[in-house]
Every structure is written in C-alpha cells, then in structure tokens.
C-alpha cells in the first residue's frame, strides 16, 4: 500500500519468475531474447533450462556431437541453442547445418564441392570460382558441356518434420567492378532448348521429379526440387538428388552451381522457382 493509503498497482516487474517462464514457453527464441531485456523476472526466466529445452529439436544431443569441444553435460540449454543456431561445419567444411531460430528446425547446406558434377575436373568445362556470394566462398561455373549432371547425397538425422530441398543456381558470371555488381551473360546458352530435370528419392520411399527451363540470368535463385518428411528424430534418412540436362544434341553453358539447400518447409530466405511436376 502506498503512503497515501491507495493500493499500489502490480506491474510486469512484480510478475513471478515462474509465471514469466510460462509466457516464454509460447514464444520463439528471438522474442524470448527481446523480453529478457524487459525486467528482472523475464531476464531470469529467459535463462531457465526448461524454457530453452522446449525450443531445441528432440535430437539436439546428437547434433551437438558435430560441434568440436562441445559437451552437453557442461552446457546450459540456452548455450546449446545459441551454438546450434550458428553454422556447424562437417565433411571437411563442404557441408554445414544450423538451427532455424524462429522455427527450431534444422537447415542444411551442401557446397558444390560436396556434389558429384560431370566433368568437374576438366577446365575446358568447369571452373571453381571464389566468390563472396556463396556461404562457402566458392562456386562451380560451367563454361560449356554436352552432358550436364549434378548428383548428391545426404544421410542425416533430421528432427522430425517436413523439409524442402533446393538447388541454388545462377545464370551468368557475376563480378564486382568499381564497387558495383555486374553479370556477364556471354557464355549463357542451351538452357532454352530443353528443360532441366530435378529429382530426389529417400531411403523410406519418398520421391519427386520436376522440370523447368533456366531462363532468368543475373540472380541467385532457389529451384525447388520437392518436399520430404523426416518421421523420426532418432533415425537417419538418406536422400539422393540430382539436376540434369543430358540432351546431347546441343551444348549448354554459363551456369553457376553454388549449393544444395534443405530448409524446414515454408522457410524461403531467397527467391524460389517451383519446377513443374
């Protein structure tokens, strides 16, 4: 009660920490961090293990094994979340995964060097180019070839959920001149003759086949191959996927292959083109 005899009104600062934690359980990680700055109750609740464990995927212990020097028993759940939200490299730096802060699902990227590309070792056809436009700082650039095929595999314990698989491609060779991005289209040819074919299959019988023409030079585009369901967080699922245009009646060239990306369904950070089934 105030000196005047009036009853003081309760505010957010008077909220019990346990009640604050119950509120945080219904929010995503970015909102939890914002509320932690509000007052002492939310700050304390935002450090609670049981709050962050709800935001972690069920198999976070397995995922943490990919992180050098990380021991689950020595880390709080908030610290585990923060570490998995950063890119975790594996396979000699050719692959990486990270935790989507908003949805709690796993994203994965495979560099062009993790893929089997027809003719990649012959500089008459392909060149590995350094670039700041790739998360791996390198892309495979196709100068000219008759038989175009890119194949890859993933064998991983994805947290249960639905995921989308994409190829990240770019028509034309981009560079920077006088601080401005420019794109050379001199070697682009052959993609208007026949569509490219995308496909994937999984170890539990899921599959998808689609195709489309590559006809938009100058921009990085995610070409959607299809969606798959990981039914168990504890069992690995094996994916095989490919991109091909193997009509040998004409050559094709001027294409950059950056990576293959796997995102929780609905997460699309770049422009997406959905191929026709």
Secondary structure elements and pairings:
Layout: H1 17-24, H2 29-35, H3 40-45, H4 49-53, H5 60-64, H6 77-84, E1 88-90, E2 95-99, E3 106-111, E4 116-117, E5 126-130, E6 138-142, E7 148-156, E8 161-171, E9 173-177, E10 180-184, E11 196-202, E12 207-212, E13 221-230, E14 237-245, E15 255-264, E16 272-274
Parallel strand pairs: 13-16
Antiparallel strand pairs: 1-2, 2-3, 3-15, 4-7, 5-6, 6-15, 7-14, 8-13, 8-15, 9-10, 11-12, 11-14
Structural overview:
There is one protein chain. This protein has 277 residues and is mainly β. Helix content is 14%, strand content 36%. The chain has helices at 17-24, 29-35, 40-45, 49-53, 60-64, 77-84; strands at 88-90, 95-99, 106-111, 116-117, 126-130, 138-142, 148-156, 161-171, 173-177, 180-184, 196-202, 207-212, 221-230, 237-245, 255-264, 272-274. Strands 1, 2, 3, 5, 6, 8, 13, 15 and 16 form a 9-stranded mixed sheet that branches. A 5-stranded antiparallel sheet has the order 4-7-14-11-12, with no helix packed on it. A two-stranded antiparallel sheet has the order 9-10. The protein is elongated. The chain starts with 16 loop residues before the first helix and ends with a strand. The model has no long low-confidence stretch (mean pLDDT 86). This is F-box domain-containing protein. Pfam families: PP2.
């Amino acid at each position: 009660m105030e000196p005047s005899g009036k009853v003081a009104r309760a505010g957010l600062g008077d909220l019990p920490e346990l009640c604050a934690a119950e509120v945080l359980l219904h929010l995503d990680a970015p909102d939890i961090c914002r509320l932690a700055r509000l007052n002492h109750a939310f700050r304390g609740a935002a450090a609670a293990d049981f709050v962050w464990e709800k935001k972690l995927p069920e198999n976070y212990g397995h995922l943490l094994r990919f992180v050098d020097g990380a021991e689950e028993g020595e880390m709080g759940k908030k610290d585990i979340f923060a570490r998995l939200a950063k890119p975790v490299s594996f396979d000699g730096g050719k692959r990486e995964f990270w935790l989507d802060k908003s949805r709690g699902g796993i994203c994965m990227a495979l560099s062009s060097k993790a893929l089997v590309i027809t003719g990649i070792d012959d500089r008459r056809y392909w060149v590995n180019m350094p670039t700041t436009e790739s998360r791996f700082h390198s892309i495979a650039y196709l100068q000219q070839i008759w038989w175009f095929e890119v194949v890859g595999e993933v064998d991983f314990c994805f947290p249960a959920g639905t995921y989308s698989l994409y190829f990240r491609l770019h028509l034309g060779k981009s560079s920077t001149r006088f601080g401005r991005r420019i794109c050379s289209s001199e070697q682009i040819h052959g993609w208007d003759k026949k569509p490219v074919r995308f496909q994937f299959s999984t170890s539990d019988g899921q599959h998808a086949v689609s195709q489309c023409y590559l006809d938009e030079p100058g921009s990085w585009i995610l070409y959607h191959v299809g969606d798959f369901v990981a039914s168990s967080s504890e069992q690995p699922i094996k994916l095989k996927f490919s991109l091909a245009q193997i009509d040998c009646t004409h050559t094709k060239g001027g294409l950059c292959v950056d990576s293959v990306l796997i995102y929780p369904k609905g997460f699309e950070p770049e422009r997406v083109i959905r191929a026709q089934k």
